[in-house]
Design brief:
- About 60% of the residues lie in helices and about 5% in strands.
- With about 170 residues, the protein is mainly alpha-helical.
- It has 2 domains: about 5-75, no CATH class; about 80-169, no CATH class.
- Strand 1 (about 160) and strand 2 (about 165-169) form a beta hairpin.
- The protein is elongated and about 60 Å long.
- The protein starts with 5 loop residues before the first helix and ends with a strand.
Length: about 170
């Protein structure tokens, strides 16, 4: 493992603080500095990992300051805001409806459902395991019947079949 210059170490620490994966950082270091480093070497610069527990205080401070700044700045990015994403989905649904493309309009409404209901990836995975294609704009008859089946016996609960359609038990 070759010794890295402080400039490269700083680059690695800041990239990791911005939630880049070690693999992404390896590629970025290669592109930026022309150096080949291993994922393991990169991980030693992450104080949140066991491999980085011996990292110098200077780099730990840089990591935490960068991560704090990254999180604060992320809140200022419009797409990171839930209301912004919902407005965009609303515009897409309205545009599709104005073009009399009702199938796409219903699809875009369905894309907003997880934001509105506070559903997460576990919900999506639960549906896809049961062959209910959440991301597919045209569900098959099998997908819809499966969605109805997977809600059977669960009164007062509902799942969205990916088209904005709520299937109730």
């Amino acid at each position: 493992m070759a010794a890295l210059k402080n400039e490269v170490k700083s680059f690695i620490v800041q990239a990791l603080a911005c939630f880049d994966t070690p693999s992404q950082v390896v590629e970025a270091v290669k592109n930026e500095y022309g150096l080949v480093v291993s994922r393991q070497q990169v991980e030693t610069h992450d104080p949140t990992k066991s491999a980085g527990k011996g990292l110098a205080v200077k780099w730990v401070t840089l990591f935490h300051d960068t991560r704090k700044r990254f999180r604060e700045e992320t809140a200022e990015i419009p797409i990171a805001n839930r209301a912004y994403r919902l407005r965009g989905l609303g515009r897409m649904a309205e545009k599709a409806e104005s073009m009399r493309n009702y199938e796409d309009s219903v699809f875009w409404c369905g894309q907003a459902q997880p934001y509105i209901s506070g559903l997460d990836e576990q919900w999506r995975d639960h549906m896809e395991i049961r062959h209910c294609p959440v991301r597919n704009p045209t569900p098959s008859a099998r997908g819809l019947s499966c969605c109805i089946t997977c809600t059977a016996g669960r009164p007062k609960s509902s799942y969205t079949a990916g088209l904005g359609m709520t299937v109730r038990a």
